[in-house]
Design goal:
GO molecular function, one term: heme binding
Shape: globular
Protein name: Cytochrome C class I
Number of domains: 1
Largest sheet: none
Organism: Hyphomicrobium denitrificans 1NES1
Pfam family, one: Cytochrom_C
Number of strands: 0
CATH class: Mainly Alpha
Keywords: Electron transport, Heme, Iron, Metal-binding, Signal, Transport
């Protein structure tokens, strides 16, 4: 029975872990972000050019919530993945009102695309 449980756990984990993220597919997912974010200039939300590796609440000229300013987050892949699952759950008090991206593959692809933005 233990072998079966271990095998079942591996089956559910391996496909997501083994899946290679696709920046082109992530560009399509980014369409969900465009209502508030642009790549090269602030809009309703801060610009996302160079977001990967950047400290949260650090884009000049954008008025961030106190919650995000105090979060201490640096936008690496893990932090972005958590944030994109539900910003208000990740940082209560954030101004970003977005339900999140529930699909693991879509989030991975979006993050891969965000890594291409300079």
């Amino acid at each position: 029975m233990r072998k079966w449980i271990l095998a079942a756990a591996m089956i559910t984990v391996v496909p997501v872990a083994a899946m290679a993220a696709d920046a082109d597919a992530g560009k399509t997912v980014f369409n969900k972000c465009k209502a508030c974010h642009q790549v090269d200039k602030n809009a309703v939300g801060p610009h996302l050019g160079g977001v990967v590796g950047r400290k949260a609440a650090s884009v000049e000229g954008y008025n961030y919530s106190d919650a995000l300013k105090k979060s201490g987050i640096t936008w690496d892949e893990a932090a972005l993945d958590k944030w994109l699952q539900g910003p208000a759950k990740d940082v209560p008090g954030t101004k970003m009102i977005f339900a999140g991206i529930k699909d693991d593959g879509d989030r991975a692809n979006l993050i891969e695309y965000l890594k291409t933005l300079k």
